[in-house]
Specification:
alpha/beta; eight-stranded mixed sheet; 50% helix; 333 residues; Rossmann fold; N-(1-d-carboxylethyl)-l-norvaline Dehydrogenase, domain 2
Length: 333
């Protein structure tokens, strides 16, 4: 496969970081944004100041508001919010050539109501296109500083995964490959829910012992629900499971952890979201994950408490007490 042009749909922090990362080697990049005003500002200044101020986009990156400009790319990368993926992908289908491009999903989430992963949505809309996913502990703020980062590309066609690995990887952006698309996507989605719980622990001032225990039990819960949804438990110990869980639960750059921290300090969800420029995927994913767990009859005490914090008016101290008052039992992963 010869990749002569990459289209990146989504001009948020991660989409902008990927455009910079892949564009600085003079690859042809088309970065699509949904806001015409922001797109015009980025085109004029070569900087996406709303998301990554101070980062100049390479000249090889063309910024556009027209999906038609992305339709002929060899590789189309989805970095949209999960709640917008279906709508944007449907709009793209109307202008894209059928079966021409490889689609790479970097969007982390589970669709509410259907329980579908992002690649399943794309497969439904683009049944003739080859699909891959990318996930891992990839904080945009550190990638654009050139700090060493590892990620994993999942594709059922391992030859295609290796092709993408060679083209997109570098010494500071190390890519591993896997054919376990399901687990990679679920790990990347569910970790955002647990990051909200970790942030709430920070906001309550509960300390490192508490947070370490919470993150460890979050991994167990991720594996329990993830395997029930079709994943392989081994993959959840990798970059898109344990790796991403560690980064997003502990990093100062994690927006989901910040949401939880603010909840722990007593702010309401409405207060938090109204002041946020970026999307915290853990908020919609909590509702979807809770729905999937109830449908599969899987025990998910941490997800349940985060759902209570976000959607049922539960206060953080109450959620903490309910977790601590659960029956003591043998440790199981």
């Amino acid at each position: 496969m010869k990749i002569d042009k990459i289209a990146i749909l989504g001009a948020g922090s991660w989409g902008t970081a990927l455009a910079w990362l892949w564009g600085k080697h003079e690859r042809r990049i088309c970065l699509w944004g949904n806001s015409p005003d922001r797109v015009e500002r980025v085109k004029r200044t070569r900087e996406n100041s709303d998301y990554i101020p101070g980062l100049r986009l390479p000249d090889s990156v063309n910024v556009t508001h027209e999906l038609r400009d992305c339709a002929e790319a060899s590789l189309i990368v989805f970095v949209t919010p999960s709640t917008a993926l279906r709508e944007i992908a449907t709009r793209l289908r109307d202008v894209a050539r059928e079966g021409h491009s490889v689609l790479l999903s970097c969007t982390k989430g589970i669709e509410h109501g259907t329980g579908m992963r992002m690649s399943q949505i794309l497969s439904e809309i683009f049944p003739r296109h080859e699909l891959a996913v990318l996930s891992g502990p990839n904080l945009a703020a550190e990638v654009v500083r050139g700090l060493p980062t590892a990620t994993v590309i999942g594709c059922r066609n391992l030859e295609r995964a290796a092709n993408l690995q060679d083209f997109l990887g570098s010494s500071r952006f190390r890519i591993y490959t896997s054919d376990d698309v399901t687990s990679i996507e679920l790990g990347g989605a569910l970790k955002n829910v647990f990051a909200i719980a970790a942030g709430a622990s920070d906001g309550l001032g509960l300390g490192d012992n508490t947070k370490a225990a919470l993150v460890t039990r979050s991994l167990a819960e991720m594996i329990r629900l993830g395997t029930a949804m079709g994943g392989n438990f081994k993959t959840f110990y990798g970059l898109s499971g344990a790796g991403d869980l560690i980064a997003t639960c502990f990093s100062k750059h994690s927006r989901n952890r910040r949401v939880g921290e603010r909840l722990g300090r007593g702010q309401t969800l409405k207060q938090i979201t109204s002041s946020m420029q970026m999307v915290a995927e853990g908020i919609p994913t909590t509702k979807s994950a809770h729905e999937c767990a109830r449908g599969l009859d899987i025990e998910t005490p941490i997800i349940d408490q985060v759902d209570g914090l976000l959607y049922k008016g539960k206060v953080p101290v109450q959620a903490m007490h309910e977790l601590l008052e659960r029956d003591q039992k043998a440790e199981q992963v």
